[in-house]
Design a protein that fits this description.
The complex is a heterodimer of chains A (about 260) and B (about 240).
Chain A (H helix, E strand, L loop, with lengths): L1 H18 L5 E6 L2 E2 L3 E3 L5 E2 L1 H13 L2 E6 L5 H6 L5 E2 L7 H4 L3 E2 L8 E6 L16 E5 L3 H10 L5 E5 L2 H10 L4 E5 H9 L6 E7 L5 H4 L6 E2 L4 H17 L1 H9 L6
Parallel strand pairs in A: 1-5, 1-6, 9-10, 9-11
Antiparallel strand pairs in A: 2-3, 3-4, 6-13, 7-13, 8-11, 8-12
Chain B lengths: L1 H7 L2 H40 L4 H16 L2 H14 L1 H6 L3 H4 L2 H27 L2 H9 L4 H31 L11 H12 L3 H28 L7
Classes of the chains: A alpha/beta (about 260), B mainly alpha (about 240).
Chain lengths: ~260, ~240
């Protein structure tokens, strides 16, 4: 009994100390393999949208920032092991991840889009617009699940492919009328292989389908670090307000990313 | 009882995907059944060409069999399906695009060509196993060549070929699972869909059971066919 009280007292002291901790230095991890969000530049330094945002947030808070790279699968485990204090790696806020870590307010959304041939007769991307048409997507993705749940019952045929490349090949050959995937990835394809054939048909509001696509992209912190979470969330609102955010976003994207 | 069953089989999952699995079985059966029969019909001329004294049909049939037996079925399916997609304009010009646009047709075509190559080899072996005396006897009786082939050689060749043909059909049933990669919902396609939604490995067990049932059906069918084809060999 006495031991339990002692342990409890110690824990209390520890958490008390943690919450009183001044955030003079914040260590932030990113993946470094997901351009243009985060990648290792030609000079060997971490760069990208996530990295710039992270540095801007630290400036706002007035803390010194160290950005480190960590493989995707190890990002959350190493955060929990206190190797660093936050993750800025285009990580979608999902229920599953919320079991492990806390997220700040979102600093970007994960837009999802339909692409179609340039001469398509389609004009919209609602289930009604696509009735009787064939939509391609990559199987085992949230996109496929959303299509089957929302578009399938409305009379849209969903064709699922092992990879997005194959869906895009069939879009080019006309076997599917449109393909549905992450906008960033599709834009990349439209710049290269799909430049001659296709265009963005329209975006889907990912917040409306948050059940499938998460609530956007946020920084992840340990559940104990409520103060850091609030500091970062407030800093996100601050850089949104003073224009720093837009300056950074324009550097990487020619569309609204928030 | 239902508790024990429930722990072995996820009944919710069964209720949600059961009907789709049955559709998948139908797709697999149609695809394999039709392509096996068409392939069998195509195999007869190919086998005869392989045995021809004329070197031109012999070389053509040899190359055909060589290619389709020597390359993976998956590669052939992708070649036809995505290859046709690349050559869309050419196919449209000859009015064949409506056929090649359809994944099911592409799969059926590839499977037919593939199994015809294997069946032709099996048939060729069967034909060669018919003793020469049979042909000579038919010749002595004045039977025309086509009648000799249809009534004397082929039935005896089929007795030899029957078991290997059954093997080929079983291999086709299992190989047909690859059509799930070109968006067809056969047994495997439905399984992959159900797994990607539920993350329950159990669905692969269901797929295995369904394939087992299909193969068992073939086995029984073949036992009946063999009894019928060899009825003249039975002691009276």
């Amino acid at each position: 009994m006495r031991l339990t009280i002692a342990v409890a007292a110690m824990l209390l002291a520890l958490t008390g100390a943690a919450s009183a901790k001044e955030w003079k230095e914040i260590r932030i991890a990113t993946e470094g393999a997901y351009p243009p969000f985060n990648f290792v530049g030609s000079n060997g330094e971490l760069q990208g949208f996530d990295v710039d945002i992270a540095k801007a947030l630290c400036d706002k808070i007035g803390a010194k920032c160290t950005v480190v790279a960590q493989d995707w699968d190890g990002l959350i485990p190493a955060l929990l092991a206190s190797k660093y204090d936050a993750i800025a790696a285009s990580m979608s806020i999902t229920e599953e991840r919320k079991q492990q870590v806390d997220f700040t307010e979102r600093y970007a959304s994960a837009p999802v889009s339909f692409v179609a041939p340039k001469d398509t007769k389609l004009t919209g991307v609602t289930p009604a617009d696509l009735k009787g048409k064939i939509v391609g997507a990559q199987s085992s993705t949230t996109h496929a699940t959303m299509l089957e749940d929302v578009y399938g019952p409305e009379g849209v045929t969903v064709k699922l492919y092992p990879t997005l490349d194959e869906a895009n090949a069939d879009l080019k050959s006309g076997r599917v009328d449109t393909v549905f995937a992450d906008k960033i990835v599709l834009l990349d394809w439209l710049k290269k292989d799909g430049a001659d054939c296709c265009k963005i048909l329209g975006d889907v509001d990912d917040k409306q389908y948050a059940r499938y696509f998460g609530e956007g992209i946020g920084l992840a912190v340990r559940k104990g670090d409520q103060d850091l979470k609030e500091l970062l969330s407030k800093a996100i609102a601050d850089i949104r307000a003073d224009g720093t955010y837009d300056t950074i976003a324009k550097k990487y994207f020619d569309f609204e990313i928030y | 009882m239902s508790d024990i069953l429930g722990s072995l089989i996820n009944l919710d999952l069964m209720a949600r995907y059961g009907p789709r699995f049955l559709d998948g079985v139908l797709v697999t059966l149609q695809l394999v059944g039709i392509s096996f029969i068409l392939g069998g019909l195509l195999a007869v001329p190919v086998a005869l060409a392989r045995l021809s004294k004329n070197s031109v049909p012999r070389a053509l049939a040899y190359s055909y069999v060589y290619f389709f037996r020597g390359t993976p079925l998956l590669a052939q399916v992708f070649l036809v399906y995505y290859g046709a997609g690349q050559l869309r304009d050419a196919f449209e010009a000859v009015g064949l695009w409506t056929l090649f646009r359809d994944a099911w047709f592409c799969a059926l075509l590839t499977f037919t060509l593939n199994t015809a190559a294997y069946q032709a080899e099996i048939l060729r072996g069967g034909i060669r196993a018919v003793p020469g005396g049979q042909r000579e006897a038919a010749f002595a009786l004045g039977l025309p060549r086509w009648l000799t082939f249809g009534k004397v050689v082929l039935p005896q060749a089929l007795v030899t070929a029957l078991r290997p043909l059954g093997n080929e059909l079983i291999l086709m049933i299992k190989a047909s699972a690859i059509v799930s990669l070109i968006t067809i919902y056969d047994v495997m396609g439905v399984t992959r869909l159900a797994f990607s939604r539920s993350f329950d490995f159990q669905v692969y067990l269901w797929a295995a059971a369904l394939y087992l049932i299909l193969v068992e059906g073939v086995r029984r069918l073949w036992a009946v066919a063999e009894r019928r084809l060899t009825r003249h060999l039975k002691p009276a």
